[in-house]
Amino acid sequence: MAQGHRHEEQTFNEFYTEVKEIEKRDSVLTSKQQIDRLLRPGATYFNLNPFEVLQLDCDTPLEQIKKKYRSLSILVHPDKNPDNLDRAQQAFEIISKAYKTLENETTRKKCLEVYEEAKDRTDMMIAEKKKKLKKDGKFDGVPEDDPAKYKHAIYVMVMKLFADIERRRQQLEVRDMEERKRKREAEIEEEEQRDLQKEWQKNFEESRQSRVNSWHTFQAGSSSAAASSSSSTAATTSTTVKSKKSKKAKYTSFNPPKIKPETR
């Protein structure tokens, strides 16, 4: 882990040295040089810092910031670079974004707070280094005792802090997007449930009369069947009664034969 960190820091330092050399060469402020500076490989990392984009120190007054913005925006403006329109447009947008950040008092203050935090962290890191050296019995000092290297250490820390801020912003953006997506899916599901309920209610209401008619038909059929059954029962009962009366009458009118006198 420590070896990887040292390798990363070494790579960054080499890149930083290269960038500073390019900036010295680009101090003449030609259009092509400025466009190349802003769009060089790895520039996205550096362009997070608006002071870096405009090549200014963090304590530069706002009036000077405006002047530098005007000069750079003219140099990289697409109208001034018809042979390099796409790259010029990208560079112009980077410069415009940096200026808007520093023009606004609130966002400029946040950028200055990054510098203050970078300085505090660098000082803490140097103190830890010296403490360790003292514990090991070494009192030769640290590289950051050199003002140039101290400034470089702060610069590196500033870049890291801006990168951390950007990563957090992207993470929050992703979470926010996922939350909005989740809420939208829930809303869609609720809307579908409401639509299904409305459809069910509509079908229920439309079929109500049909159900009522079916019930009336059933009731009417039941009444007719009952009446028919009652008539049939009455007829059967009447027939049975008549049959009994007829049999009774038959047996009642029976006359026994007369007994003849015996002849001797």
Automatic annotation (TrEMBL):
InterPro entries: DnaJ_domain, DNAJC8, J_dom_sf
Domain J residues, every copy: 49-119
Amino acid composition bias (Low complexity), ranges on this chain: 222-241
GO cellular component, one term: nucleus
Domain of life: Eukaryota
Biased composition (Polar residues): 210-221
Region (Disordered): 176-264
Signal peptide positions (record): none
Basic and acidic residues bias locations: 176-186, 194-209
Protein name, as recorded: J domain-containing protein
Organism listed in the record: Anopheles minimus
